[in-house]
Amino acid sequence: MTQWFDFNLNLPITDPTWIFFLVLIIILFAPIILGRLHIPHIIGMILAGVVIGEHGFNILERDSSFELFGKVGLYYIMFLAGLEMDMEDFKKNRVMALVFGIITFLIPMVLGVWSSMELLGFGFTTAVLLASMYSSHTLIAYPIISRYGLSRLRSVNITIGGTAITVTLALIVLAVIGGMYKGTTGGLFWLLLVAKVTVLGFLIIFFFPRIGRWFFRKYDDSVMQFVFVLAMVFLGGGLMEFVGMEGILGAFLAGLVLNRLIPHVSPLMNRLEFVGNALFIPYFLIGVGMIIDVRSLFTGGMALKVALVMTIVATLSKWLAAWITQKTFGMNANERSMIFGLSNAQAAATLAAVLIGNNIIMANGEQLLNDDVLNGTVVMILFTCIISSLVTERSARKFALHQELQEVQTSAKKKSEQILIPVANPDTLEDLVNLALVIKDNKQKNPLIALNVINDNNSSNTRALQGKQNLEKAAMIAAAADVETNMVSRYDLNIASGIIHTIKEYDATDVVIGLHRKANIVDSFFGNLAESLLKGTRREVMIAKFLMPVNTLRRINIAIPPKAEYETGFAKWVEHFCRMSSILGCRTNFFANESTLKHLQLVVKKVSNTSLAEYSILEEWDDLLLLTGQVNFDHLLVVISARRGSISYDPSFEKLPAQLGKYFGNNSFIVLYPEQFGEPQEIVSFSDPRGYNESQHYDKLGDWFYKWFKKN
Description:
Rossmann fold, 3 domains, Na+/H+ antiporter like fold, alpha/beta, 712 residues
């Protein structure tokens, strides 16, 4: 009889196919099951690891795949923590982060040394290493923060900054103790350690951003960019391990220096978070659970006592550090809970320290950290991770509910935002969509509107097919950043008419278009499309030309004409560029006269982070040559113009196309026309960038007489 199935189950399972299948099943169902029990997902991964590990039902062995993916996941946690950190908020809170980092290192060190020597009877060296394990902590609950979108909270930034400080100090202690037993703690050891860490830190901080900016400008393929970022993370981690420190510091530092090149709202950021949270980080958490031997608690001896003392001291010391930080800086109770929740979990550096200490043999033949400490450590990791996850989840819910209430109140006052992007040119399409993503208010879930207009007089199947492909590409780029897109295709008499009709039909509030290519020598700088569009709508219109990807821009320079503050859309465009500046992590320099700058500072203070804004006097608006020394090749120049007949319109706007073409031909720039009240009327010409106003000659003559009388 033919044997149809050859099924022979041996535990632990060693077949790679079934190992990966079981891990994916755990990643899939653990959050679903524990979500019904209102238990954080992180705990589910760790408990699943306990159940399937060699100390549980021995279903899977902690093989090289768990070591590989686990290390990637560990690096990913630290990398995302650095990547999602708001550097400007961190700079504002750097003093508090420094204080918290020192406090959360010293208190566990003091309590740890005392408890290890007095309660557990360990020697001084063992006690110091054990205490350093309490001092370090891992941001294992950080995915909870990401899920709730709270990465920019003050308490989160303080904790992340403090984490970098305390982990660094704890790893230095580990390096010193490890060096003592290698006989390398002489003066040369210290000198080499300081020199290597200093040189490496300089290399990462100086070269990584420059390499990243060059790569992103040269290659726009999404897969290549993703692989490049991963390579930089592991290069940072590998270099840090090369100089004798832990690789998690290198991964964290890589996240910090690449922060400005990967906007929070971008397809690349979405891919990085997706892959990490879907695969690498869960793999790491399951691997941590597989180390834990719960049965050691019930076998008698020192294991239970060590586990209890370690868990209590680690938790108490971190709570005291959070409490002292709260009282020192006048924070509220929920901020203290957030700091305690994020900083209580012990995993990464703690595991590294206990495994290294377990392998160190002292002169008397005993291990520096014996098996009781090893078992106690993994139990401490389990309980601190549970406490950390529960406290962080509870605190995050409170913040999220409060934030949602504020957003509802704000959105009730704020008009709904609809950004329209005509997608005629496939070469400029990606830059325009990315521009729309960084100026869009993410608190409003309105989709982008991608529009393809087909001219009735010049239609063909080829043009229709190309337009459809452009719409799909725009939707794909936006979807990668988790933003929906309405794809609209329509036939009309001409392109401008189609855009204007779509604005009315979808109540679009903003239009982002690309600068056209001149067809012939008599063609205008902006083109007939832009000119007709500006005549036909009062909505905010951005005419953009990008010579490099949006995320690689280093500064935004905005030239503002006199009386711009009296335009209807003044606050709106200020908020757009403040949001863009915040997402890209670059500074914005506003150029205007004193009166306009005073109004501008009030608006910026109200809508954004003022630390990113700089203000410069620009009296002679009619000659943009004055800005050439301020605008570098990797800067974005924004010129605020106005429609003819508006209050801030100036005859010098007619020279704008010539000046942009002459002085800023090798720069990325945006010409913005602010929103105005009402609807356009045919009897008045509101916008013709190449046109002439009859009154302009009288204005110039009057200005000449005024200056002549003033001089004489």
